[in-house]
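Input/output pair, single chain:
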Amino acid sequence: MIVTNALYAEIDRLKAENKKLIIKTSNSLANNLCPDHRDKQAGKPCLACEIDRLAARVGELEVERDELDHIAVTICKQKNELEAENRRLRSLVDGVTEVVEIFPCTSPAQMEWKYGWLRNAREALKEASHE
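Output:
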């Protein structure tokens, strides 16, 4: 969003600069044209060309802004999908943890497996909570 705000600011700045140039040239455009536009004052940039350049830059920035907005929407959508998947997996781990806790262990190997699995499940949930 910071990039998008910077693009909006740049677009606004260019539009304001464009308006200033249009005002400056409204009465004396013939004195400020480059060779492609038939005339030019010595050492001064062609205002008509500058207006064209600024208008093109505004268009480029608007396209870039739209692309960044699309990327931001896509990232938000992916984030929401991942959060939903995380909630679903946590629910599954919680359910399986309950089953493992009530599982009757009859041998030391089963007890070791049960406590190892519960320890790993707690660690996984702890890690998932620090996202």
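The chain has a mean pLDDT of 79. Residues 86 and 92 are 10 Å apart (CA to CA).
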